[in-house]
Structure formats: structure tokens, C-alpha cells
Design goal:
220 residues; alpha/beta; TIM Barrel; 8 helices; 35% helix; 20% strand
Length: 220
């Protein structure tokens, strides 16, 4: 498992060309990406629909790197087993969703997967504190989830990233801190300075003329 302070670059498959999915996965791997980030949206928890377990299963045979699956779903507990079976390596669920958070996290860990918890920009850091010793990743959404291309919400979210870092250090924990939304060559440095180490980026990577160069710049 990667150290929680090692920078990890995770291109978001939402920004890939889905008509060339296998090639896009290989392009990300060749460019040096560490994880692939897969945003699952159910049309209820967020006002958009993306894909389900079958899509993850389609990608799995072509990906040698970690499949980082983010469930933006009202009832992630109902679908958890399907995403586990589809080949996810990590599954992150939302604190705001309608489920028993502790039980969902325990099921994920029991399946041998990386276990993450996410919070939206409007949700205070205190909401996730009871579960921080149960996870190995905390995802701080840096835009309102649902659609790509939004502006990075620095003032609303970076204090929470710093809180997550400080809490981790003061309590001897080792969870990754992931950010997702508006991450590009400029904002990756801001997020890193506040304590984030897992950087999810869509168009800044899949839309770059040279993806390998874009990945390298995000590691600086």
C-alpha cells in the first residue's frame, strides 16, 4: 500500500473517450498514472448518471493499476457487493448517503478492498471524525459533485483538507487524503500544500496534449 504522504495521480475515467475505453486505460497507465478514478453517479444522490458495476467490470481486464471507485449513490450499501465483484480495488462511499456508514465500511474492509469515506463541500469535517479510524482514504470533494468542469472551491474545502491532515497526524492514523474536482496543474499544488496526496483529475489529464507530461507536472 502506498504511504499516505506519497503523491498519487488518479485520472478520472469520466473525462476519457468512452468509445476507445481500452486505449484510454492503457494511455493512462503508460503516462504513469497510479490509480484510475471511477465516479459512479446514480441520478439521486447527485443530479447526474454515469455508469454501474458492468462498466467497472469492462475496465477491469484492461487495467493493471488500482481501480479507485467512488460511489456517489443514495444507497451504496445496496450495490456494494456488485462493485466488489466487478473488480474494484478501492471503494469510497459518502458520509451524507442513506446507509449505516460503519457497516458499509466494515463490509468493504472484509472484502479486502481499500476503504474510503467522502464528504461534500458543504459537509463539515466533524461529520467524518467518528469513522476516521475505520478508513484508509478520506475524499474531500473540492466541487459540488455531479458534473465535471467546475471551479475548484479553495476557500470552502482546503481548511477541511488541512483539518484532515492535522487530525491524522495527531491521532497516529494513516489514511490517504484525496481531492476531486477542479484539480489541474495550478490547484494540485494548493491541495498538496494543505495535505492532500491523492489527486483526481479529469480533463487536465485525459484532455492534455501529452498526458505523461501532465502527470509528471502534477507530481511536482
Amino acid at each position: 500500500m502506498s504511504d499516505c504522504k506519497t503523491r498519487i495521480i488518479a485520472p478520472s475515467i469520466l473525462a476519457a473517450d468512452w468509445s476507445r475505453l481500452r486505449e484510454e486505460v492503457k494511455k493512462a497507465e503508460k503516462a504513469g498514472a497510479d490509480w484510475l478514478h471511477l465516479d459512479v453517479m446514480d441520478g439521486h444522490f447527485v443530479e447526474n448518471v454515469s455508469f454501474g458495476p458492468q462498466f467497472v467490470a469492462t475496465i477491469r481486464p484492461h487495467a493493471r493499476i488500482t481501480l479507485d471507485v467512488h460511489l456517489m449513490m443514495t444507497r451504496p450499501d445496496k450495490y456494494l457487493d456488485r462493485f466488489i465483484a466487478a473488480g474494484a480495488d478501492r471503494i469510497t462511499v459518502h458520509i451524507e448517503a442513506d446507509h449505516d456508514v460503519g457497516k458499509t465500511l466494515a463490509r468493504t474492509r472484509a472484502a479486502g478492498l481499500g476503504c474510503g469515506l467522502a464528504l461534500n463541500p458543504a459537509t463539515p469535517f466533524e461529520a467524518v471524525m467518528p469513522h476516521l479510524n475505520e478508513i484508509d482514504l478520506l475524499l474531500v470533494m473540492t466541487v459540488v459533485p455531479g458534473f465535471g468542469g467546475q471551479a475548484f472551491m479553495e476557500n470552502e474545502t482546503m481548511p477541511k483538507v488541512a483539518e484532515a491532515r492535522d487530525y491524522r497526524e495527531s491521532h497516529g492514523l494513516s489514511y490517504h487524503i484525496e481531492v476531486d474536482g477542479g484539480i489541474d496543474q495550478r490547484t494540485v499544488g494548493i491541495a498538496g500544500a494543505h495535505g492532500a496526496n491523492v489527486m483526481v483529475a479529469g480533463t487536465a489529464l485525459f484532455g492534455a496534449p501529452d498526458m505523461a507530461e501532465a502527470v509528471r507536472k502534477m507530481r511536482v
